[in-house]
Structure formats: C-alpha cells, structure tokens
Amino acid sequence: MDGFGIFEGLEMKSKTIRRWSFVHTWTSLICTVFLLMLALTGLPLIFHHEIDHLLGDAAELKQMPADTPQLNLQQLVLAAEEHRPGEVMQYFGYDDEDPNGMIAIMAATAGTEPNSSHTFMLDARTGEALEMPSANGGFMMFMLRLHVDMFAGLPGKLLLAFMGILFVVAIVSGAVLYLPFMRRLKFATVRQDKSTRLRWLDLHNLIGVVTLTWALVVGVTGVISACADLLIAAWRTDTLSAMVAPYRDAPPLTQLAPATRLLDIAKEVAPGMKPDFIAFPGTRFSSEHHYAVFMKGSTHLTSHLLTPVLIDASTLQVTAVAERPWYMDAMGMSQPLHFGDYGGMPMKILWATLDVLTIIVLGSGVYLWVVRRKAAKPVADIAQAQA
Amino acid sequence: MRPRQSNFWKVFALPTVIGLFSAAGLFAALLGDGVWDALSWLGLGIPAIIALRGLLKPL
C-alpha cells in the first residue's frame, strides 16, 4: 500500500489520478519560471569553452619548445603577487588541457568571498600573467551568476536548490501520470489530426518520458551543486576542524614558508595522484595555518574525487591527509554529470539538444495547463486519451 | 503474474529501455575516452532522436 493507491491494481482510480495530477501541476508550475531560466542560461554555459575562444576571451599561451622548464611554485607566487600588488593568493589551479597554464585566483584577503576574487592565468614557464576576462565578468559570467545564484548569494542558491527538488517531484509525478495517459496508446504516438492540444499532450508525454533519466540526473546533480556552500561548510566543521585542532590557539601567521616544494610533499603522501588545486592559508578550502593541496585520482572516474593534503604553512610538515566524506565525493561527481563536459563535442551537442527538449516539455506543460483550465477537468483528458 | 501487471510493462517497457540507455550513456563517458565517449553518444543520442522524430513528424 502506498497511500496513493497506485499499486492496488493498475487501473488507477480517477481520485488517484487527480491527486497525482495535482502534484504534477503545482510542482511544475511553481518551478517552471526558474527552470526555464536555468535551461536558457545553461545553454551557452555548455559551450563556454568554445564561446570564450570565439570571443577571444581565452588566454592563449605563447608557443615555446616543448621541453621548456617550468618555474617553481614560489616563483609563480611571486609573479602573481607582482601582477596584483596588494593582493594575496587564494588558489592555484591546474589545467589538464595545458600543464603550462596555471589558473591563479587572488583577492584583497585570503578569506574574500569567491565573487570578489580575481582569476587570471599564469604561464608556468615564464610567470607571465594572462587575463581571463570571462572568468571575472562579461556576458558568460552574467549567465553563470544567473544560473548559479541569480546574483543573490546563498539564499539564491538555496532557492534554486528548492526549485530543483520541485522539478524532480514534477518528473516523478509526470512519470506516474504517463501510465493512465498512455494505456491505450502505442509508444511514441503523436496524434496530429485531432487538435493542437492533443498533439502537444502527446509530445509532452513522449519528450518528457524519453528525457526523464537525463533530466533527473541533471536536476539532482544541480541540487547537489547548489548546496555546495553548505557541504563545504559541513566539511570544514566535520573534517577540517578536527584535523587542525592543535592549531586552534596558534598565533596568526605573519609569513608563509615558500610554496616551492608543496607538490613534491603532497605527492609523497598521496602517491599515484595528481594535483588539482592548491588552497592557500586562510581560504575556505584550508585553515589559517595550512596550505591544502587537493589531489585527484589518476583514472577517469577518480579524477573527480579530491583528497586534500594539509601542509603546515610554516614548517612544511604534513599535518594530515584528509579523508573524503561521502558528500564531498557526491559533490565531485555531480560536476561533470551536470555540466556535460566529459564526452567531447558530440556530448555537448546532445546535452544542448536535451536541454532544448526540456524547454519544450516545460513550455508545452504550461500550454496544456492554460488550455485545460479553459476547458475540461483532468479526468476528461484521460477519457479522451483513451478514446 | 497478474494480467494487470502486463499493462504496466506494455506502457513502460520502451521508456525503461530508453532510460537504461540514457543512464549507461551518462555513465560510460565517466570511465574513459574513445570508445567510452562513443557509447555515451549512443546512449544519449537515442532519447534525443526519438524525441526529435516525434516533434518533427509532419502535420
């Protein structure tokens, strides 16, 4: 027994259908405006890499002989500080596509919130700084901020997470309603000749049911990403604070030990792993007294899972290799599954196609609601569907 | 098996198969490049093509 009576027998009672129909209608209607915004802003974001190149916003590294040696990390820190005087390092990120392009993120203080930071690229061979305009503002950043938090910070993210949950409920209730609607129809039937409404009802059902898995995965991973701030905060209180407990009463650092050997130190304790990014002391991915080198697995699958190595920023001793709580892994795996950037250009095109199909399902849903409100009750729909 | 249950599968058999293809497609490209990418294009291409066929069917 499931309360809704669905499994009492698959001849769904009209009362049961009405209940599910109510759930489907209202969860969809509430989230539709937000989902349309997310689907529309998400579309250019799928191709942000290509768009950056097209607009000339991508940093282009100089051609140099392949065996040109790289500067060490401390030299790169100094080059970055020279480029942005008065600011401090927050993060160094490694780019898989070009090992010579280091992403540097700096701000007035280490604890400055991410949207006020400045992102640029450093040529790891020369220390030359290259601007990345689209990482700091402009059209693509505007799309990203709308998509991520609607310029409203954490409340915006949580509102979008809630809309994502409504979207998932709408998908599930839609799948339940698919049964009474389709009982007498062959799969993929689109009735063209009866009325515009029936055509769109059939299309809404068909497109909705075939894109269901993709939409669920993108929806759920979007909700997880929207909750990232909370997950990171939980990680800081659960895992990080226990590891740095001995430093609780230590005085603030006035000088950092050079970053030169950070990677070698991290690789010694995390063999077989590759660096993903380095968090400098005082950022939210580290403590006041540590460099945190985030190492990732070297296989395709494990490259999304990060293991932080905490290195004392004055003695350069390893304080701890942090364990990864399950929710940080969930966050890591959510990223590719939400962005669709892990299967080359054909996957991006499919991602965009499925995104547009979702817009069509959302739009046809609103249309069907408007038309039905003008005319009959939901049960009449099904009688018609089964006629 | 009760006759009513076959009603369920009559409606959901193909959507389930398509859903499994999509899921396999989403997962495959996480495992590697080359043939894994191609598998993901197949898995995600199936729902996209079926939806587009319905949509573009001439009136």
Can you put this structure into words, describing what you see?
The complex is a heterodimer of chains A (387) and B (59). Chain A is α+β, with helices and mostly antiparallel strands. Chain A has twelve helices and eight strands. In chain A, a hairpin with a 5-residue loop joins β7 and β8. In chain A, α7 crosses α10. Chain A is elongated. Chain A starts with 13 loop residues before the first helix and ends with a helix. Chain B has 59 residues and is mainly α. Chain B has two helices and no strands. The radius of gyration of chain B is 15 Å and the shape is flat. Chain B starts with a helix and ends with a helix. The relative contact order of chain B is 0.12. The model of chain B has no long low-confidence stretch (mean pLDDT 91). At the A-B interface, α5, α6, α7, α10 and α11 of A face α1 and α2 of B.
Number of strands of chain B: 0
Give the CA-based shape of chain B: flat
* Gap between N and C termini of chain A: 30 Å
Quaternary structure state of the chains depicted: heterodimer
The succession of helices and strands of chain A, N to C, reads HHHEEEEHHHHHHEEEEHHH
Report the C-alpha radius of gyration of chain B, rounded.
15 Å
Assign a percent range to the helix content of chain B: over 70%
Tell me about the largest β-sheet of chain A: 8 strands, antiparallel
Beta fraction of the residues of chain A?
Answer: 5-15%
Strands of the widest sheet of chain A, in order across it, are: 4-3-2-1-5-6-7-8
What's the count of strands of chain A? Answer: 8
Total helices of chain B: the number is 2
Indicate the overall shape of chain A: elongated
Largest sheet of chain B: none
